[in-house]
Amino acid sequence: MTSTIFLGTGHYVPEKVVTNDELAPLINSSDEWIVQRTGIKERHYVDWENNPMSTSDLAAKATLAALESANLTPADIDLIIYATLSCDHAFPGDGVYLQVKAGFPVGTPCLDIRTQCTGFLYGLSIADAMIKSGTYKKVLLACSEVQSSGLDFSEEGRDVTPLFGDGAAAVILGAAEDSDGRGVLTTTLGADGNLADVLCVKYPGSMYNPRFSQDMFKEGDRGRYPQMNGRLVFKEAVTRLPVVINETLQKASLTIDDVTLFIPHQANIRINEAVAQRLAIAPEKVVHNISRYGNTTAASIPLALDETVRAGKIKAGDVVLFAGLGAGLTWGASVVRW
Ligand SMILES: CC(C)(COP(=O)(O)OP(=O)(O)OC[C@H]1O[C@@H](n2cnc3c(N)ncnc32)[C@H](O)[C@@H]1OP(=O)(O)O)[C@@H](O)C(=O)NCCC(=O)NCCS
């Protein structure tokens, strides 16, 4: 039976670090408020003045790191899956830009998905299905975000702006025939489109004619910035994540006690602590890196995964649980025997 195993991981974040103390005066906030409510201390931003980079630039660096760790070249990859909410252009999707920038052969198919914070989980599920069906043998899943060019750096943006950061991560997934039980065991995905407007950026959009107009910049119209009902997203996350995690473990005939490491989406440390507490997952099994990166949306889970792998904290046979919820709303969980 074919399994989907992780062949390599990589990440890249721009060098520029922006601390809460640097951000706070712009948005009338404080380091204390941001740390207490979210666990975030700093985030990385593209250095727009000295070294401008696009989302696919970040993705290319993460991809090359993942390929190197897998000891593979771009020519070995059969499919590129790319997840982001912050594409370089309105269209085409970023996958084709990544193909060129990371040196993939012309002809390598590029599939863009946009499920925001669950981009990694949705992408993993697609890659797993493609590999298990025999369609492709090696798949790159790249997840990348540049948020810093789309945030509101005024007091009006203070409930959203400190949460997000720029970053990218990538994994290489491959087919294995005798994997000894290792590989992606199962993934569960979900969505509730009734809550689409709870976290969204409206402009530009094809439902407006023209798509861009001066009206979109008039005072009081905040449609070009992320709008979020933070309390509702928080509530949805702490109620839905335990359910989808239990369902996923059950499908894999595992229990919480079997989980070696829990790598959740990094949106708010309080969400992840609450979910771990509800499920009785020991705090030392939960991976947090939100204090250094904030929420890097699609890149968040694979970035935490790559750091954990590179720190030597995952060994063969470990059961790794991923889970997240974000804009859409979309959510999901996946369990992997490493
Ligand atoms: C955004 C979030 C941190 C806000 O924390 P909260 O405890 O819910 O705070 P509230 O939104 O209720 O705001 C409380 C007060 O703090 C104020 N406030 C909001 N942002 C602030 C900031 N950065 N600095 C200082 N004060 C702020 C609000 O204006 C509000 O003031 P009021 O009581 O006078 O009206 C929290 O709701 C959250 O993390 N939600 C989930 C978000 C998420 O996960 N999003 C991404 C999903 S992928």
Task: Characterise the protein shown here.
With 338 residues, the protein is α/β, with parallel strands linked by helices. The protein has 2 domains: 3-176, Peroxisomal Thiolase, Chain A, domain 1 (3-Layer(aba) Sandwich), CATH 3.40.47.10; 183-337, Peroxisomal Thiolase, Chain A, domain 1. Helices cover 30% and strands 22% of the residues. The protein has helices at residues 20-27, 31-38, 55-70, 95-101, 119-132, 230-251, 269-279, 290-293, 300-310, and strands spanning 3-12, 17-19, 42-44, 79-83, 110-113, 138-145, 167-176, 183-191, 199-200, 227-228, 261-264, 319-326, 330-337. Helix 3 (55-70) crosses helix 4 (95-101) and helix 6 runs parallel beside helix 7. Bound molecules: coenzyme A. Coenzyme A binds next to helix 2 and helix 6. The site of coenzyme A (COA) has 20 residues, from helix 2 and helix 6.
Named CATH architecture of the largest domain? 3-Layer(aba) Sandwich
Low-confidence stretches: none
Strand tally, please?
Answer: 13
Strand order in the sheet with the most strands: 1-7-6-4-5
State which percent range the strand residues make up.
15-25%
- What is the highest CATH level, the class of the largest domain? Alpha Beta
Q: Cofactors and ligands present?
A: coenzyme A
CATH superfamily of the largest domain: Thiolase/Chalcone synthase
Order of helices and strands: EEHHEHEHEHEEEEEHEHHHEE
- Number of DSSP helices? 9
Structural class of the secondary elements?
Answer: alpha/beta
What multimeric state do the chains show? Answer: single chain
Query: What's the pLDDT, averaged over the residues?
Result: 97
Please give the domain count.
2
